[in-house]
Amino acid sequence: MSESWDGSFDRGSQSDDSHQFERMHLEPMYDAFVCPLTKQVMRDPVTLENGQTFEREAIEKWFKECKQSGRKLICPLTLKELKSMDLNSSIALRNTIGEWNSRNEAVQLDMACRSLNIGSSESDVLQALKYIQHICQKSRSNKHVVRNAQLIPVIVDTLKSNSRKVRCVALETLQIVVEEDDDNKAILAEGDTVRTIVKFLSHELSKEREEAVSLLYELSKSEALCEKIGSVNGAILILVGMTSSKSENLLTVEKADKTLENLEKCENNVRQMAENGRLQPLLTLILEGPLETKLSMASFLGELVLNNDVKVLVARTVGVSLITIMKSSNMKSREAALKALNQVSSYEASSKVLIEAGILPPLVKDLFTVGANQLPTRLKEISATILANVVNSGYDFDSIPVGPDHQTLISEDIVHNLLHLISNTGPAIECKLLQVLVGLSSSETTVLNVVAAIKSSGATISLVQFIEAPQKDLRLVSLKLLKNLSPYMGQELADALRGTVGQLGSLIKVISENIAITEEQSAAAGLLAELPERDLGLTRQMLDEGAFQLIISGVVKIRQGGIRGTRFVTPFLEGLVRALARVTFVLVDEPEAIALCREHNLTALFIELLQSNALDNVQMVSATALENLSRESKNLTRLPELPTSGFCASIFTCFSKQLVITGLCKIHQGACSQRESFCLCEGQAVGKLIALLDHTNEKVVEAALAALSTLLDDGVDIEQGVVLLDEAEGIRPIVDVLLEKRTENLRNRGVWVVERLLRTEEIACEVAGDPNIITALVDAFQHADYRTRQIAERALKRVDKIPNFSGIFPNP
C-alpha cells in the first residue's frame, strides 16, 4: 500500500498538503490538464483568442498585472499580443479533468480506507487521514463521499491508536469531515464516540486537548447533539474547568467557552453548568426564559450549594426577579422563588442585597396572611427561614417599612404578630421565627423595641417554656433569644424560671450533660450567667437543686483538660464561672452558700482562674468573686479565746503576764484560712491580683483592684494590709492605676485605695515626694464626683497639701 502512495507521488516544489495531494494520481495525467502558469491540474480551464488554455484565476491575474504595469496585453505562453481579454470556458476539458479527478480520488480514497487499519504503519495512517482532510476541504460534496464510503467509523477507530500523532490527526480529520454537515455529525455521535472524544479533554498532551475541544465545539453546533454531549459524565465539568484554567492556551479556552455557549441550548446542560460553577446561563434563563423554564431554573437554584460570593452575584442578578415571582398568585411559582431565595439569603452580604431589592414586605405578608391566599405550612416554614436569614444580616430594620401603616419589623404590633404566630404553629416554624427574634435582639438599636413588645404581650413565660422543648434546635434558639434578652429583662426571666416548674432544672440539666461541649450548653450557661446575680431566690433554688456542684464539676473538668477542642469551650467556661460567682453575692444572707464555698474551696478555685490568660471575662469574674469572698472574711474569722485570769492576777497585776497568741491572721486578727474564712493572705492570691493590674482590659483591672481593696477595708487592720501589699510589691502598680486614669471608675477606686495607703506614715512620706501622685489627687479633688472628691481631700491632708483645720478648731 505504501508503495502505491509513494510511487505515484510527485513532490514537486510544494510542501503544503493540499498541493501534495493535487500531484497524486494513479491514472496518467495529460499535459492538457495542466495550467502553463500554475503547473497544476486546472479546475476551471478557459481558452484565449489564440487557442491557448489556462486556469481562469491564473490568466485573470496575468491580465491584471499587464494592465497595472502598462505592458501590452500578450499571451504568457506565446508572448504574442492579444486583441481582447475574452475568456471562453473549456467545458469539455473541464468535464474531462473532473472525470479524471473523480477516478483518481475514488482509487485514492479506497487506498486511504485500506491504510486505516491496525496493521498499517504510522506514516501510511497519517497520509491517509491527511488525504481525507484534503478531499473534504477541496469539495463539500466529498464529505458525502466519505460518509457513503463508511469511512467515519474507520477514522474513529484510529483514536485508539498508540501513536499520539495519529490520535491528534484523527481528531483534526473528524472535525473537518463533520464541519457544517449534520448528517456526518449524527453518524459520528453514534455509539460511544462522544464519550471517547470527551476523554481526550483530560489527556496530558495539550495538542490532543485542543483538537478534542475543537471537535466538540463543531459537534455542539448541532442542537440535536447538545444533550448527548452534556450527558457524558464529566464533559461539562471538564469544559467549565478549561474555561477558567490558566495553563490552557487562549484558543483552547475560547473554544471551550464557545462549546459551553452552544450546550446552553439544553436545559439539563444549564443545570450541570450551574452545579459546576458556571451559573450565568441559569440566571439568564430565570431573567429571560419562558415562565415554565423560569420556574424550573429557580427551583433548581434552590437545590444548589452556592459559595458566598456566588450568593451575592445571584442576589444582584436575579434577586428582583425572584421576589417578583414570589409575589405571584400562582403557588407553584411562589414555591420555586422561595426555594431559591432561601438558598441565596443564607449569607449576610447577599441578604442585604435582597433587603434592598424589597424582600421584606412580601415575606412578612406571606407569614401573617390567613385565608384563601395563605401559604401552606411547608412554604411558610421556608418564608420564616428566609426572614430569619435576612434579619440576622445585621441590617438597620428600623428604617424599612414592612406593613401597610409603615410598620417596621421592630414595631410593637409586628413583634406581637410574630409572638402570636410562634404560639400557634409547629416546631419547625417556631424555630425559624424565634431565630428572627434572635436577630432583632442581637442589635443594640433594636433589642429594646423587642423587649418592650415581649413585656407588653406577656410572652415571657411562653418563651421560657421553650427551654423544655424536645427538639434540640428549638431549645437552642430559645436559649440564644433568652440570653440576648437577659441583660434587659433579667429579673423577669429569673422570676419566670423560679415560678414555672422544671425550667431551671432543664437549664441546669443541659449545662451538666457529660458530652463534648455544644452550642446549646454554651447558650444555657450564658443565659444563667446573665440572670441577676443578687437574686437571692434564684440562687437558693440553684443551691437546692445542686446546680452549683454541677457547675463546679464542669469548671474543674475544663481546667484539667478533660474537655477541649471545641469552639464553644470558651463561652461555656465564661458562662459557668459567672454562674458560679453568683453564690458569692449572697454570703451574708445564705449560710448554705458559705457552706458550699467551704466544701469546694471556691476561694482556691477562683484564685486559680485568675491565671486564665486570654479569657478576660473569666479573670474579671473570678476577681469579683474573690472580692465578695474576701469581704466576708472579717465576719468568718475565728477570734482567739483568751484564758480567764486567776484570782491573784485579778487582784495583783504583778502576777499577770501579757499573753502572746501566735498564728493569727495579721489582717483579720483571728484564725483564718483560705477554705474556711476565704482569706486572701494565702494561696498567692495577692500576687496574682496585683499582676492583673497591668492587664489591657480596664474591667479586669477594676475587678482586681476591688478585690485588693478588701485588704484595706473598714473592719480589718489597714496598716497590716498596707504591709502585705508592700511585701507583694503592689504599691507601685496600685499607684500607677491612679496615674493612668484609664476610666472614671478606675480613677475613683484608685483614689480610695491610695488614701488608705497614705494612712501608713512611711507610705505617706514616699507619696509626698512624688509630684505625679499629688497632681492626680488634686485633679480628683477638683473634677471627680462628690464622694471621690472627699476621699481625695483626706488623702491630700495626709501629705500636708491641704491644711487639716480639724486640729485647729475644736468641735463644738
From TrEMBL:
It catalyses: S-ubiquitinyl-[E2 ubiquitin-conjugating enzyme]-L-cysteine + [acceptor protein]-L-lysine = [E2 ubiquitin-conjugating enzyme]-L-cysteine + N(6)-ubiquitinyl-[acceptor protein]-L-lysine. Pfam families: U-box. InterPro entries: ARM-like, ARM-type_fold, Armadillo, RING-Ubox_PUB, U-box_domain_protein, Ubox_domain, Znf_RING/FYVE/PHD. One of its GO terms (molecular function) is ubiquitin protein ligase activity. Residues 28-107 form the U-box domain. Transmembrane segments: none annotated. Gene3D superfamilies: Leucine-rich Repeat Variant (1.25.10.10), Zinc/RING finger domain, C3HC4 (zinc finger) (3.30.40.10). This is RING-type E3 ubiquitin transferase. Pathway: Protein modification; protein ubiquitination. Its EC number is 2.3.2.27. Keywords: Repeat, Transferase, Ubl conjugation pathway. GO terms for biological process: protein ubiquitination. The keyword Cell division does not apply. The keyword Repeat applies.
